[in-house]
Design brief:
The protein contains 14 helices and 16 strands. By secondary structure, the protein is an alpha/beta fold. Helix 2 packs across helix 3, helix 9 packs across helix 11 and helix 10 runs parallel beside helix 12. It starts with 5 loop residues before the first strand and ends in a 5-residue tail after the last strand. Bound molecules: adenosine monophosphate and zinc ion. Zinc ion (ZN) binds next to loops.
């Protein structure tokens, strides 16, 4: 099937053919949550991008071993626990639970391992010890630092300029700007009121970067295929991971580095002070389906900034409704004599377009366009009753196949209210009064009539659009031999 998967590698700055270390197998590490806070939709952009990558690799026949760390000890978690006066474990637990819950809600495939930093202190200590023995790390005031001038490849990932580097400048913070590149802490001396571990390299606690180096090699080996994160991870986190791992192991750490751009809200960086930090729960509370969120997150190419707006989310919802609507019509197809199964060439083209799009550095816009072209081509055939039951089944099966990658397909609607109105039944438009029930009926009637008119005029796009409008109102149409019937349903949900 198709050509090669091509992925943009931050290390080379180029889109490259993807060749795995072991044929048919991919070892994938994605930086997980720092559990000092509830995850926000920016985090979910990163995790959904990684999930799309993983699902596509599976779709293309790879076996994927996926590891995602849980950062449950670092500057932020320690500060949070100390502010609240609780243990690290107590402080981080609700955030770890929320992460798992939201992840399932967004239909993100679970990783094979979720190593927690606090459960891997011995592995980190061993790695720091190796770096000390190799002379690339040094002790200072009870802490241990990585000497970046001992690692000539430092800066290659983030393309930083080391010319102005002051040799021996040091910092303890886990996060810092490119402008202040310096020797970073591998192991931090105990501080009053902070948790620490008694170890053979002395008492203290790990820096943030060492955990990913230690845990990735434990579960994936010293060299693995793909490492992902958001662009904010490139420096210093991933730069430091490379330095630690390669200096200690003497082999290449990671072959492909993939980073997604940030999500912003209404064109602005998310910030508590702006009140524009959304969690998944905040969005679902407004009545959206988690798959609307997922659809929006994957619809923008991962290397472009994603501007989150509720308008964009509404558009994602409409796109999903269009798919649900289409699938509903396919399910309603009944066996009739004389019909032709003319859908196969369209399925073929859609599968080719979908795969080619995603092969091209996960170009989801192109992949989705191929899917909507299929809908556009099959709709008129459906309207003319030319799709056989077998053909309809094949289209449905195709959607099931691609939804293994997208995970956005609406579930078949379930009748909620059970109220069935009938087209042509005497519903006088005279009493367009205050009764919302009657008003809805009149409105639905009017739209059904416009749709019939559009169909009679072979304006299938218009007919489709009307059906979508109705679906957005929670109204599902059924074309029966006795005319159009409609029912009120709950909007498609999990
Ligand atoms: P953190 O919990 O801050 O360590 O972040 C977890 C993941 O979310 C990392 O891969 C970050 O790069 C990513 N991330 C954080 N903020 C955003 C954002 N606004 N847009 C996209 N990804 C983000
Ligand atoms: Zn990491």
């Amino acid at each position: 099937m198709g050509g090669m998967i091509r992925l943009h590698n931050t290390l080379s700055g180029k889109v490259e053919d993807f060749v795995s270390l072991e044929p048919g197998k991919v070892k994938l590490y994605t930086c997980g949550p720092t559990v000092y806070n509830f995850p926000h939709i920016g985090n979910w952009r990163a995790y959904v991008f990684e999930d799309l990558l993983k699902r596509f690799l599976l779709f293309r026949g790879f076996q994927v071993t996926h590891v995602m760390n849980i950062t449950d000890v670092d500057d932020k978690t320690i500060r949070g626990a100390s502010d609240k006066g609780v243990s690290l474990d107590e402080y981080t637990r609700p955030f770890i639970e929320a992460f798992g819950r939201d992840r399932d809600t967004l239909d993100i495939l679970p990783a094979d391992h979720y190593p927690r930093a606090t459960a891997h202190i011995p592995e980190m200590v061993r790695l720091v010890k190796t770096l000390l023995e190799k002379g690339v790390a040094y002790r200072k005031d009870g802490s241990i630092y990585f000497a970046i001038d001992k690692f000539p490849a430092y800066g290659r990932l983030s393309k930083i300029n080391l010319e102005d580097l002051r040799p021996g400048s040091r910092g303890d913070a886990d996060e810092y700007e490119k402008e202040s590149v310096h020797d970073f802490a591998l192991w931090k001396a105990p501080k009053a009121g902070e948790p620490f571990w008694e170890t053979e390299i002395g008492p203290g606690r790990p820096g943030w970067h060492i955990e990913c180096s230690a845990m990735s090699s434990k579960y994936l080996g010293q060299t693995f295929d793909i490492h992902c994160g958001g662009i904010d991870n490139i420096f210093p986190h991933h730069e430091n991971e490379i330095a630690q791992s390669e200096a200690a192991n003497g082999v290449k750490f990671v072959n492909y580095w993939l980073h997604c751009h940030h999500l912003v809200v209404d064109g602005q960086k998310m910030a508590k002070s702006r009140g524009n930090v959304y969690t998944l729960a905040d969005i679902l509370a407004k009545g959206y389906d988690p798959r609307d969120v997922r659809t929006l997150l994957i619809s923008v190419h991962y290397r472009k900034m994603l501007n989150f707006t509720f308008d964009a989310l509404d558009q994602a919802r409409t796109a999903r409704q269009r798919i649900g609507n289409f699938l509903g019509e396919l399910r309603d197809v009944t066996e009739k004599p004389g019909e032709t199964a003319a859908v196969e060439p369209f399925i073929h083209a859609a599968r080719a377009g979908f795969t080619a799009g995603l092969d091209d550095d996960l170009n989801t816009a192109e992949a989705l366009a191929a899917v909507f072209t299929l809908i556009k081509n099959v709709n008129p055939l459906l309207a003319r009753g030319e799709v056989s039951k077998e053909g309809a089944g094949k289209v449905i099966a195709f959607f099931a196949e691609i939804d293994k990658v997208l995970a956005i397909k609406p579930a078949p609607p379930t009748a909620a209210s059970g109220k069935i109105g009938e087209y042509g039944s005497p519903q006088g438009t005279a009493e367009l009064g205050a009764d919302p029930e009657k008003r809805l009926e009149a409105e639905v009637q009017a739209r059904i009539e416009s749709r019939q008119k559009a169909r009679a005029e072979k304006d299938f796009a218009r007919a489709d659009a009307i059906r979508e409008e109705l679906l957005a109102m929670g109204i599902v149409l059924e074309d029966t031999k006795d005319g159009v019937r409609w029912k009120k349903v709950g909007l498609p949900r999990a």
